[in-house]
Specification:
Elements: H1 3-71, H2 74-97, H3 104-113, H4 121-131, H5 135-167, H6 172-257, E1 261-266, E2 271-274, H7 276-282, H8 286-289, H9 294-297, E3 299-300, H10 312-317, E4 324-332, E5 338-350, E6 353-363, H11 365-379, H12 389-402, E7 410-417, H13 420-427, H14 429-444, E8 452-457, E9 460-465, H15 470-486, E10 488-491, E11 494-497, E12 500-507, H16 514-530, E13 536-538, H17 544-565, E14 568-577, E15 586-594, E16 600-601, H18 603-612, H19 616-635, E17 646-649, H20 652-655, H21 658-671, E18 678-683, H22 684-689, H23 691-702, E19 707-713, E20 730-733, H24 735-739, H25 745-760, E21 764-767, H26 773-782, E22 786-787, E23 796-797, H27 800-807, H28 810-816
Helix pairs in contact: 1-2, 1-4, 1-5, 1-6, 2-3, 2-5, 5-6, 13-14, 16-17, 17-18, 19-21
Length: 820
Amino acid sequence: MSHETGARLARSTTQLLRLVWPFVLVIVLQALLAGSSLFVLSAVRGFVGGESLWSKAQKDAIYYLDLYANSHDLDHFEQYQQAVAVPLGDRAFRVALEQSPPNLVAARAGILQGKNHPDDVAAMTWLFLNFRNTGFMERAVEQWSLGDTYIFQLTNLADDMHDAISRGAVDEEQEAIWTSRIQQINQGVTPAADKFSSVLGEASREVLHLLIWVNLATAVLLIAIAVLRTRKLLRQRELAGQALEMEKHRAQVTLAAIGDAVISIDCRGHIVYLNPAAEQLTGCQAQQAEGQPFDTLLSIATEQADDTGESLVQRILAGRATAVSESTKLIVRQDGSSVAVNLVGTPIYSEGRVSGAVMVLHDMTREHQFVASLSWQASHDALTGLANRREFEYRVVQLLDRLEHEQRRHALMFLDLDQFKLVNDTSGHAAGDELLQQVCSALQQHLREGDTLARLGGDEFGVVLENCSAEAAERIAESLREAVQELRFAWNGRTFAITVSIGLVQISQAQDSLESLLRTADMACYTAKEKGRNRVHAYQPDDSELSQRVGEMSWVARIHQALEENRFCLFAQTIGALQDDDDGGHIEILLRLREANGQLVAPGSFLPAAERYGLMPQIDRWVVRTTFQALADHLLHSTVQDTPLCAINLSGASIGDTAFLGFLREQFASQGIPPELICFEITETTAITNLDDATRFINELKGLGCRFSLDDFCAGMSSFMYLKHLPVDFLKIDGSFVRDMLADPIDRAMVEVINHIGHVMGKRTIAEFAESDAIIALLREIGIDYAQGYALDKPQPLDLDRYRREAGPALARRDAGVAR
């Protein structure tokens, strides 16, 4: 069977199914409905049959119990038990299904005990569960339940009779009473049984009538649907013929309106049809082109023939090519002009043979222009027309690659306008855009041919000077600075003086990478700004200041990463008491950074960068949050009395941050930390520089119960008068005085003076850098309250339990001194 024959057979089958499916649907739905009806009737029949067994068993139970009352024969009692088991089983079925959720296992056991057929169990269970509260079922259950009450009376009487007969304590008077009671129960249960039977019979007839009407109505509905569907199919067939005619007309209109050139040819390769777009592309009218060979109308200049020497058109017409989409081709028209097109050729089949082809030609001229425009936009700044950052970095990379094979010198500059934000904020973005364009024009006038000027973003520019010595680069940089300085920008009657800061870097083989080169140039520009702006800063390999700045910038990224990856960790060092009347001292919380390789980094390496670039508030929050969490965990299995006072260092940035106080209050509340366990340390320089903020900050937290320590006291030799305004609890004497106090009498005198003044003002003193037993002995002699240093304890990972074990009972004295 051929492919075409198989397709025709498939279409015929599909059409047949579309015609007969309504009738199939009618038959299937009617069969389902009939089956459902039989199932329901079977369930109702099961209950009717079950009622008959229930009624007969009741009567048998009464009959045998009456015989047992007179004969005292145990066989009669056993026959009674067998009879009464039937209604009791039916009751167990009903009770099990009325539970929530229904007990299906118990229900099945009960209905089988009631002598119902096993095949009826599923239908009877389904009917009871789904129609328990409907009219007929509810009435039947009422009579059923009423009959069960008489069964209970009968079973109670039977139990009493069996017990008395078993004991032999029965006389004729008792037998008469039993017989009378049995007759009373029989008189009560008989009407209930009759009513139960009547209700079920009526229900059976109602269900039968309802199902008959439902089946008839459904049959009528399904037949109507089938008729309507058949009429619809006939109407669709009529409309399909009309639609075919309309599609033919629409295809002709579409071909006339389509933007691509469409040319149809016959089996000989002669032109049959050209749409208007093809007329415009070829420059030939349809009437003139009809009947001409395709190759005479157009020739494909870039086409390569195959091994047989056939062109694309010849291969399609010969049946050796199906729908073919060629890449961009250059076609030559009759007038000799050429145009780039995307050519698609598709054969037309008739009775299994190629009877022609359709050639679609899409003019690529506009796409080529668009691609060229996009390429320019991707590498240039839209406002200034200069190269953008991406193009700038690409050219720098090319220079670095060429340095591997060339021995030449190049230079790179970063330029940042100094007053651009002032112009933008006061005169608007339109003024800022105009200023950037004027600055670009001024800069280009002082660059050599072949140099690259790029806008890197905002008011930042980059310059690449190729084949330029260091001296020439500095001269060009200075001329650029002067050009911008001499520019007078006027806008709406106002004149602005503009300057520029320039960072200059030499490009040589020594440069590691594009990233390091750009970072160095950026830092050189930043240094020029810091030194007063309107200047050129040329980076030199021995530029220690810039090297330090580059190092700090690298720490910024590492600090951010450490915060994200939670690689900071807390250490602690004991601050021990030196005097017998003091408490057991406390601990200072210290910060370390754990590198990705596990190595610990001291705070002196990364805190300067954090302070310079505004990262201290984030670090302070991490330290406070982590310390409070450690305290909260410790307090779960310990008491406040067994917990050391923790001294936490705070930066000046956090003290001046109005939101930091709220953060601390929230942490105290959420972690449940008693404020009397926290002592905040601030440096003397921070306190004096931000005296008002520091005073307000200290008073707020002391009101909660926190304590404060003034760190590095007298390190800057500031006036003691500031101390009167700072309500701190501890003075930490700067370690530079303590370290050499054994050999230097001036240092010793300074320690004595600070200790005396601190005590006069009611403050405890702490000496740092207590590195030997001799220093500790001298500090104790002078009267210093506490000492901190390697002679007492080295910094160790924070472990509050360790401190509790080592501090011992000295902690108890601390709590007695909290109120002091």
